[in-house]
Design a protein that fits this description.
The chain is α+β, with helices and mostly antiparallel strands. The chain has nine helices and ten strands. The N terminus is likely disordered.
């Protein structure tokens, strides 16, 4: 039996990107900041689904869909157009984005959505790109898109274009907390004061999560002070995470305002998440495992 092409669908997960540390090491003449970060992923994700269609369309679903633009400025549609331009693809696609991650939250949600769109449409359109060409397209969409496209725990350098995958990180669990306040990335970078951080040598990757947390304590997120000054609830979130039993590390991801607590197991993370949710009912709280390779989350 021949499968009806109209029923063909390609789905890709767009998981939360977590900056385990983030140092700002300089700024280029064009104003873009140079970064040194170890990024990984959490097992909670938006979903991109693409189907064959004559035109290029986007449908939004999920709890955070109302907070996203559905027009041509949406990063998913920008990614689709960028891939078509790079490959010469002329087909359309019906794209559905199921938005489960809060937008503009320091978890690279829009970047992950764009990366998942590039991967899904490359398969649907049979329009593969070399790794180098794909990363070049990704960088035109945002600094976090290359690491999201690579889909592995990695060091991020330059303005995001230098992605160096690392071996699998030890098993760990995140409690992710977003207090629901806007923390614009540009404003956070503008509010950052003081000297730039020196480049750091690669971490000596540990065998367990306790060792990972210990290594990470020697580093930081350089954007935390600026984000906390602009949005004091970010500081409240960090304090709430830090006081939880069994938390190994509490830190902000990206430019905020999502913060994470690092835990050794799901039970400890679940207990902490339940306590935070009970105390702060309007905050977004999620529990998810650390995921070193995002392909494992694809349908």
């Amino acid at each position: 039996m021949v499968e009806d092409v109209a029923d063909v669908a390609v789905r890709r997960a767009a998981p939360a990107k977590i900056n385990l540390y983030l140092h700002v090491v300089g700024r280029r003449d064009d104003g873009f900041h140079l970064l040194d970060s170890l990024a990984t992923f959490a097992g909670i994700a938006d979903t991109i689904e693409v189907r064959p269609a004559r035109d290029l369309t986007l449908r939004l679903a999920g709890p955070f869909a109302p907070r996203l633009p559905a027009g041509p400025e949406n990063l998913v549609l920008r990614a689709a157009r960028a891939l078509a331009a790079a490959t010469g693809a002329t087909a359309g696609a019906a794209i559905t984005l199921t938005k489960r991650l809060p937008p503009s939250s320091g978890m690279g949600g829009g970047s992950a959505d764009a990366a998942a769109t590039l991967r899904a449409l490359a398969e649907l359109w049979n329009a593969p790109l070399s790794d180098e060409a794909a990363l070049a397209v990704a960088l035109t969409l945002g600094a976090d898109v290359p690491v999201c496209l690579t889909g592995r725990s990695a060091y991020m350098g330059g303005i995001g274009e230098v992605v160096t995958p690392v071996p699998e990180l030890p098993p760990a669990w995140f409690v992710l907390v977003n207090p629901g306040v806007p923390v614009p990335t540009a404003a956070v970078f503008k509010a950052r004061h003081g000297p730039f951080s020196p480049p750091s040598p690669p971490l000596e990757l540990p065998v367990d999560v306790a060792g990972l947390a210990s290594a990470l304590r020697a580093r930081r997120n350089d954007l935390e002070p600026a984000a906390c000054a602009l949005a004091p609830k970010v500081a409240d979130t960090l304090a709430e995470l830090a006081r939880q039993d069994d938390v190994l590390l509490a830190r902000m991801s990206g430019s905020g305002g999502t913060c994470f607590g690092l835990f050794a197991d799901a039970a400890a993370a679940g207990t902490a998440a339940a306590r935070i949710s009970a105390a702060h009912g309007r905050w977004w709280v999620a529990v998810a495992p650390l995921v070193s390779e995002t392909a494992a989350l694809d349908d």
